[in-house]
């Protein structure tokens, strides 16, 4: 069986370009590995843990969590207007 001319050209072209493709593939794999290594420790569970640590104040009425006293006071005034303001929020501006 004889090979057709376009098949010979196609095979020759692939073998000639493979060295360059191999280098490009290796560089791309290195970049991907470096990116994955850099993102390690920045996963969703780590972000959730950090966010949970930031929520320090807890509402006395509804138990929702807030990051700072100013937000807590705003929450309390808006969501629980009929209740008395807790003592720790009376001096917050």
From TrEMBL:
Keywords: Cytoplasm, Nucleus
Principal place of residence: cytoplasm
Domain Small EDRK-rich factor-like N-terminal: 16-55
Any one Gene Ontology cellular component term annotated for this protein: cytoplasm
Pfam families noted in UniProt: SERF-like_N (PF04419)
Subcellular location: Cytoplasm; Nucleus
Region of interest called Disordered, as start-end residue ranges on this chain: 15-47, 72-93
PANTHER family given in the database record: GEO09665P1-RELATED, ZINC FINGER PROTEIN 706
Protein name per the record: Small EDRK-rich factor-like N-terminal domain-containing protein
Organism (species): Anopheles merus
Top-level taxonomy: Eukaryota, Metazoa, Ecdysozoa, Arthropoda, Hexapoda
